[in-house]
Amino acid sequence: MSGDNEKILTRDFMLCFWANFLFFGTNFYLIPILPVYLKELGNNNTSIGVIIGAFSFSAIFLRPLMGCLADSIPKRRLMLAGTAIFIVSPLLYLTTTSAAWLTLIRIAHGMGLAAYAVGSITFVAQIAPRKRLSQATGIFVTSVSLVTGIAPIVATHLKNFLDLPELFMVPSIASAVAAALVLLVREPAARPHLRREKHDFIGTLTDRHVLVPSLVFAGTILTLGAITAFLPLLVINWEYNNPALFFVVYSAVMVIMRLVAGSVPDRLGHERVVVPCLCLVAVAMLLLARSHNALTLAIAAIVFATGYSLAYPSLNALVVEHVPAHRRGASLGIFSASVDLGNFLGPVFIGLLADVAGLRLSLAASGLTPLLGAWLFAHYYLSRQNKVQVKHM
């Protein structure tokens, strides 16, 4: 259980995998339901954007806090707290029509995401074999890749058969099942000396092994946030105008890459994998900006998923490998907040740019952020690594 065993697919790992599948599935389930519900309540697009965005906005600030808690309390408690919030929150959406109260509910809902996400990824880092950490992380987050393409389809199908209260009850039930799986997980006992360590949050935040991967990944996620927000507008006038094709191809390639090539970063070295992956993401954004039919859209999705699939576990593994064990939770909390930061900033900045320069040029320009991340990563990791090698020659 300590992470020294070379086996990845242990009982506790698989329990977390399926709990993760159900937990994040509830979030993707709400994608085709919640905006329509808010529109029916009479909210305008700005209000809908604020309410939906409050979910990620709150998680930006809460994930680092939850990371600090993960260093001092059992990870399973954080996961259970997250599932408890996810059980209650979908039902609360039906209790008010006030945009202000709905925004507060979304903020609370985001607290659940922050607690569970940090607890789960920190737990996996704790039990995964050190020499196969990137592969283990990649397999674990494949649970999210799988459910990304499944949950919205399920929700769209159920809308034809269930009334509103029943629709919102589904994610609550799924979260309850996730909580039951978490209860079955056996967490290794924390070593006593780790519990006594004091947190230096600023020191952790400014540690280049935390800050650099976080900034790099935020720039990468910014492109995904832009795609999620504006792809429907890009394809709206195409003969084939279903943006779901991109996400179906993206999910399939993510799963295949992480299962087939997931061990590549561990074998070649995480530092060697990141820059090529970020370059692929940048190329994918250029291809997406030039897409005009289903085939070119699918090609862009393949290239994007190929780069993204190995970039995340590699950056995550670098954080785990370079920080002390007593700061691992706080470090991963900061790193995972980069997901929410990118998802929040991507639609905002690309939306502002699109009003001036057009959508296609804006999507292509978003590819500059992973390229900037590649330069930053190469400067802080690869150049220093080469200097160390020269000194030892």
From TrEMBL:
Q: Where are the transmembrane segments?
A: 12-34, 46-66, 78-101, 107-125, 137-155, 167-189, 210-238, 244-261, 273-289, 295-320, 332-353, 359-382
One Gene Ontology molecular-function label: transmembrane transporter activity
Domain Major facilitator superfamily (MFS) profile intervals: 1-385
Q: Which GO terms describe its cellular component?
A: plasma membrane
Which keywords does this chain's UniProt record carry? Membrane, Transmembrane, Transmembrane helix, Transport
Q: Where in the cell is it found?
A: Cell membrane
Give the way it sits in the membrane.
Multi-pass membrane protein
| Chief location | membrane
Q: PANTHER family, per this entry?
A: QUINOLENE RESISTANCE PROTEIN NORA
- What name goes with this protein? Predicted arabinose efflux permease, MFS family
Write down the species.
Desulfoscipio geothermicus DSM 3669
